């Protein structure tokens, strides 16, 4: 083989190896309306992010560092915000928001933590932080 072929093969292998963690994750986004935003990042394997937004000016953001984490948001209404920050393995976070002006922030640092929430009405605010392993939190709020 020529020197150029060996170098090109090595570079291709390096790019493929470094891209594998991002390719191993799954992202699902379904939006209907106007001004909705969705974003996030994944570092690790078998992570999954799903967002379904129906309405106006809804925001969803998830960051996952670790393996086998799941984050899911469903938002129907106007000006809702949902965020999940997961550091560790086998964490699950999900929130469903119906109405307007809701805010939910879920932070998990550890392994095997679960957060599930539902907010109905207008103007609910939830902030859940879990540190350690095996924690479970569920919340339901009906606001204004």
| Element order: H for helix, E for strand | HEEEEEEEEEEE
Query: Which whole number gives the mean pLDDT?
Result: 89
Shape: flat
Number of strands: 11
Helix content: 10-25%
Q: Please state the CA-atom Rg, rounded to the nearest Å.
A: 18 Å
Query: Number of helical runs?
Result: 1
Distance between the termini: 72 Å
Q: Which regions are unreliable across 5 or more consecutive residues at pLDDT < 50?
A: 16-23
Helix-and-strand structural type: alpha/beta
Oligomer: single chain
Order of strands across the biggest sheet? 1-3-5-7-9-11
Number of domains: 1
β-strand percent reads over 45%
Largest sheet: 6 strands, parallel
Structure write-up:
The chain has 144 residues and is an alpha/beta fold. 15% of the residues lie in helices and 64% in strands. The chain has one helix spanning 3-24, and strands at 26-34, 37-43, 48-56, 59-65, 70-78, 81-87, 92-100, 103-111, 114-122, 125-133, 136-143. The longest helix is centred in the N-terminal third of the chain and has 22 residues, at 3-24. It is flat, with a radius of gyration of 18 Å. The N and C termini lie far apart (72 Å). Mean pLDDT is 89; it is low at 16-23.
How do the strands and helices of this protein lay out in sequence?
Elements: H1 3-24, E1 26-34, E2 37-43, E3 48-56, E4 59-65, E5 70-78, E6 81-87, E7 92-100, E8 103-111, E9 114-122, E10 125-133, E11 136-143
Parallel strand pairs: 1-3, 2-4, 3-5, 4-6, 5-7, 6-8, 7-9, 8-10, 9-11
Concise overview:
This protein is an alpha/beta fold. The protein contains one helix and eleven strands. The chain has one domain (25-143).
């Amino acid at each position: 083989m020529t020197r150029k072929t060996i170098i090109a093969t090595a570079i291709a292998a390096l790019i493929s190896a470094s891209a594998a963690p991002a390719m191993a994750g799954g992202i699902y986004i379904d939006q209907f309306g106007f001004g909705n935003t969705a974003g996030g990042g994944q570092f690790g394997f078998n992570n999954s992010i799903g967002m379904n937004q129906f309405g106006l000016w809804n925001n969803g953001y998830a960051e996952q560092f670790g393996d086998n984490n799941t984050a899911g948001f469903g938002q129907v209404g106007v000006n809702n915000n949902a965020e999940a920050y997961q550091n560790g393995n086998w964490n699950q976070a999900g929130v469903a928001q119906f109405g307007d002006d809701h805010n939910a922030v879920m932070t998990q640092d550890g392994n095997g933590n679960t957060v599930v929430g539902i907010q109905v009405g207008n103007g609910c605010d939830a902030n859940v932080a879990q540190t350690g392993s095996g924690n479970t939190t569920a919340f339901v709020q009906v606001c204004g």
